[in-house]
Amino acid sequence: MNLHTVRVFPSADTPPREEQLAWKFAELATEEVPVDADVAEMVANRLIDNAAVAIGAINRLPVQTARQQALAHPRRDGATLFGIANDQKFCAEWAAWANGTAVRELDMHDTFLAADYSHPADNIPPLLAVAQQCGRSGADLVRGIVAAYEIQIALVTGICLHKHKKDHIAHLCPAQAAGIGAMLRLPTETVYQAIQQAVHVSFTTRQSRKGEISSWKAYAPAHAVKLAIEAVDRAMRGERSPSPIYEGEDSVLAYMLDGPQSEYQVPLPEPGEPRRAILQSYTKEHSAEYQSQALIDLAFRMRSKIKSTADIERIVIHTSHHTHFVIGTGSGDPQKFDPHASRETLDHSIMYIFAVALEDGRWHHVESYTPERANRPETVALWRKISTVEDPEWTVRYHATDPSAKAFGGRVEIELKNGETITDELAVANAHSFGEKPFAHNDYLHKFSTLTEGMVAADEQVRFFELTSRLSDLTPQEVATLNVQLPVEIVESSERNQAGIF
């Protein structure tokens, strides 16, 4: 692994393209490197994971809306939509938009946390849609997904967007563009131009994840999806891009991140080195912001030590800077204590999440967020007794470069009314690679079966699992059917309506 230094240069001193980060990414994407067997297996697991959370969210309003927009863009040789029969095809960018929204809606697929946040499986919907429309094989699809993961995880490791209040799709969009370029085996020059276009158009603010969080949280990665596909298409037609997009005098580093003095270290594999970044990411067992995963498991463990939550005087969660300021009381968001807040807001309130997990001893992707659940008087009372504080030790562990030392949990102190204090801590979620019960292939299958119970016919589940089991060997014709179909009566708004412009 090589650390590439990226910084801002005056226009008169622009570095040659071979030294620019976008070119390094384009080289990474277009180099012929065999895919390790365990990496290919994890790609298949993440396809199953995406399908599980997408079908689980299939009738939620944002997913319905995105699907309606895609239904208005049929294309005979296009891509499939989650839940819709495989003989119906749609324009790749619109299929990716709808499928990307479905994958993101429950906030329950994979994650990678370092200098910034990411959900790398957001790369899969555009790659699958383009593969289906362009007639690519399973091996091509795997190659593209592996490259996209490698680049997004490199960016998230080296460059923080959050401290400048920029949304993390600014790292997702160029990774998607590079992955598509890798899958289509485009020239390095073309991928370089596509990456730069993708970076330029995808910088947005974090207001989508602040205060009263709306359905745009689910749409944001899907928005990057469309931007990336369109960027690649333009580059394939010979169009050029703002350059150098990272190092330029008026670049995103200079005016959106650390300014003219910006300097970052981005890890890149050496030439010929296997691409294994996907194995650094981890999926979610619970439908909630990743930094709450370990704390949900900790709540389950601590509840056995408490006779009644009514006996609690207060709860203090000692955790990392990121957890405290993003989903904790450090955010200063009053909405995080509002029982009438949106699901998206409750999903980003560790105070709410810990209270419900402590009371219920379970976490459900629907029932844990209902208005009735959030408005229980005893829950509201407990919720408002919970606060977070930043603990420097947990911040250091959050940013550790050694994967085995990284931690995303915290230490919880529960003070009872009788003066007793109960303390416990958990570094990583049970399902994490270094957790008590690391997610394995059968866990992905179980997650799919749980989230899609009563929706997917048994033979359709078998068909989909069989395709994923030999993903790297699939023909283009088989890739075109790599979708989960549902009975027509189950998918709400499976027919196009005229409610919008399209």
From TrEMBL:
InterPro entries: MmgE/PrpD_sf, MmgE/PrpD_sf_1, MmgE/PrpD_sf_2, MmgE_PrpD, MmgE_PrpD_C, MmgE_PrpD_N. It comes from the Bacteria. It is an enzyme of class 4 (lyase). Residues 286-467 form the MmgE/PrpD C-terminal domain. One of its GO terms (molecular function) is 2-methylcitrate dehydratase activity. SUPFAM superfamilies: 2-methylcitrate dehydratase PrpD. Residues 19-264 form the MmgE/PrpD N-terminal domain. Keywords: Lyase. Its EC number is 4.2.1.79. PANTHER family: 2-METHYLCITRATE DEHYDRATASE, 2-METHYLCITRATE DEHYDRATASE-RELATED. Belongs to the PrpD family. This is 2-methylcitrate dehydratase.
